[in-house]
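Treating backbone geometry as a discrete language has practical consequences that deserve illustration. Part of our work consisted of pairing the sequence of a single chain with a tokenised description of its backbone. What the numbers capture is local backbone geometry rather than side-chain detail. For completeness, the protein is quoted in full, as a sequence line and a line of structure tokens:
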Amino acid sequence: MLPEGSSLLFLLGASLALIATPGQDNLYVLTRGVAQGRRAALVSSWGVCAGLLVHTTLAAAGLSAILASSAAAFQVVKYAGAAYLVYLGVKTLFDRESFSVPESGRLAAGLRSIFAQGLLTNVLNPKVALFFLAFLPQFAGSGGALGFLSLGAAFTLLTLVFTGVIALFSGALGGWFRGRPGPAKALGYVTGGVIVGLGLRLAFAESG
């Protein structure tokens, strides 16, 4: 169950402020849209939000508490996520056919692969799990696991709307690069560099 009245308004306001803060998910969807177009960005957004639902479920089940209490578990998940992001970034730098501006509306990578990558980049980010454990219980009250799941679903829906707007914007921006070989080539390097940077930032993230 969702909170009511002023508590609900505070939840929505705090959630929107957090969602709008430039972070891994927003930057990932943005780079996807600029590099591969609107459809790829939207599917990436869906993958990222599916990852939020996974974190919500794990937190409601109490599994995410392991990351909060075990430094070793946090480090394992963190480095796995960082390695995956760096892998995607390096792949972009050296094989831009798999992450490039599409021609004639054709996506360079399958939509299933794009969805899975968005899902994994979020699921393998332990900072998201810790965020859910710290933020959502403040509003769950006595709703228990059901209340927690409802809050997580609401947060995910807001994220889906916001990242969807980013996807549409970045997809339109990516359209400008079509037919411009020079900027498109530079875009490949920028996109790969951003994703590698996200991975390195995650690698040096602290649990607290």
Notes: DSSP finds ten helices and no strands in the chain.
